[in-house]
Write a structure and sequence with these properties.
With about 475 residues, the chain is of the alpha/beta class. It has 17 helices and 16 strands. Helix 4 packs antiparallel against helix 5, helix 4 packs across helix 6 and helix 12 crosses helix 13.
Length: about 475
């Protein structure tokens, strides 16, 4: 009988290492092989707790043995180990969707949760397998690190249940905190400061993208730890670090949204990863060329996942700067809106008037004053193709909950806090309700009737009214 191995990716994180441990609990006949280049915080953890854990090093494997089976966790890319053949069975266990067709003898098991550790831990719980406090701590580290301490959008209820189960079995949260917030070495701190100095913010398709470059010949520490710290500082939709290490360039990329698929970007440079985290080793290209190539790719491949136009409300009413507070109050009560765009003589937006500003003017008995005295001034608007992230930035920057949607010189509608809340409370991956209804109408209605409704909708919009259709099909 040949050997069975449990492998993960190089430069592995705690989710990869914890997934190896969890897989060993389920397949104790297999050997969890420590990657050759684990991150520094993992190395320090293993130095302290090595005797309590089942890992083996590559150099400890038999030199002439055959490998019958490989369990590959938290990655879908295999660095072929010694002894593997075309007959070797490979099982992928990963919380990322399958990215490619598999070769013969390969299989895949995975679901969309925050960490691969969660998938394996659920099977440990189902099978009544016990874990020690040290094992529980490592498993918790895997889930906490890959979910941003349970704050990333990919986090699920299953991840929360898993860390609760681990805490009940002795996971030491103080140790978890220490290793998640590991201090930087002097070499890492120097590179971190260089990356911050060069960091550029690029608004692409309504997303905030941060690109940073640096020269660091002779650098030997991992760069991924710096990516996490810079991401926490800027909170971008996508982060791309390009570091010149002398013999080659290293690209490290992170994303907080499926609309920025960093795995696809890294693949172009000969690397790999998944939607939220990826890396590439780049040869034969200088830093300036790689940066420009990266920016060109980002412009082509990044698109809003959900656009403002998909969630906005139509039939917006506008005010002129000369409208009095009393008149604005009557309009607000009549239509039930919490805010209105204020439009100048040329049709341009000059400000936003909200209920809060009207209430303040009325408390001072200034009903006869024009709204231009109280509105939030400025060209405050978003486009129908802008992302929800861009909308949130506008709302928080100006402290308003209603933002007009503009295309060219036309005000198409308004998007509100209520629209955002509806989006957040929709089931994951469910298309916005308005888009779904429009698609159903296109599929079910005869062409002439659909055209009539579109014309009626356009007329209602020009008049500032909402169009209602009653019936069924």
């Amino acid at each position: 009988m040949g050997e069975q191995l449990i492998l993960t990716h190089e430069n592995t994180d705690f989710d990869g290492l914890a997934s190896q441990l969890a897989a060993w609990k389920l397949y104790p006949q297999a050997k969890p092989v420590l990657p050759r280049r684990p991150n520094r915080n993992l190395r320090d953890f293993l130095t302290l707790y090595w005797d309590e854990l089942p890992f083996v090093r590559y150099e400890d494997l038999a030199r002439r043995g055959e490998v019958d089976r490989i369990i590959l966790v938290d990655t879908q890319t295999l660095v072929t180990p010694r002894g593997m053949s075309n007959e070797t069975q490979v099982l992928i266990i990963d919380h990322h969707p399958l990215a490619r067709d598999l070769p013969p003898n390969w299989s895949y098991s995975g679901e969309a949760v925050g960490a691969t550790t969660t998938l394996l831990l659920e099977r440990i719980v189902e099978n009544g397998i016990r874990v020690t406090p040290v094992e529980a701590t490592l498993l918790a580290l895997g889930i906490y690190e890959d979910t941003g301490s349970l704050t990333y959008p990919t986090t699920t209820v299953r991840d929360l249940h898993s860390v609760t189960w681990l805490a009940e079995r002795g996971a030491n949260l103080a140790v978890v905190s220490d290793f998640l917030h590991h201090p930087l070495t002097d070499q890492q701190l120097e590179l971190y400061e260089a990356l911050l100095d060069s960091a550029e913010i690029h608004p692409i398709a309504g997303h905030t993208i941060v690109v940073a470059t640096a020269n660091a010949e002779g650098y030997v520490e991992e760069i991924s730890a710096l990516a996490h710290k810079i991401r926490d500082l800027y909170d971008p939709a996508g982060l791309f670090l390009l570091v010149d290490l002398g013999e080659h360039l290293q690209l490290v990329a992170r994303s907080t949204t499926d609309a920025v698929d960093v795995g696809h970007i890294a693949d172009h440079f000969g690397g790999g990863g998944h939607t939220r985290a990826a890396a590439a080793l780049i040869r034969g290209m200088d830093l300036a060329t790689a940066r420009q190539t990266l920016l060109d790719m980002l412009e082509r491949h990044i698109h809003p996942l959900v656009t403002v136009g998909q969630i906005m409300s139509h039939g917006v009413h506008t005010l002129s700067p000369q409208t009095t507070v009393e008149e604005a109050t009557e309009i607000m009560l009549r239509y039930g809106f919490e805010g209105f765009p204020v439009v100048g003589e040329g049709g341009e937006i000059v400000g936003i008037l909200t209920r809060r500003e009207i209430d303040r003017a009325r408390r001072l008995h200034l009903e006869t004053m024009p709204v231009s005295h109280y509105m939030t001034k400025g060209e405050i608007w978003v486009g129908p193709g802008d992302s929800v992230e861009r909308l949130q930035q506008i709302m928080t920057q100006h402290g308003i909950g209603q933002v007009p949607v503009v295309k060219g010189t036309d005000i198409l509608g308004v998007v509100t806090r209520t629209d955002l809340i509806k989006l957040w409370t929709s089931p994951p991956h469910q298309p916005p309700r308005r888009q779904e209804i429009a698609q159903r109408m296109q599929e079910a209605l005869p062409g002439p009737l659909l055209e009539l409704l579109q014309q009626a909708s356009a007329m209602a919009q020009e008049m500032g009214y909402a169009l209602y259709v009653v019936g069924g099909f």
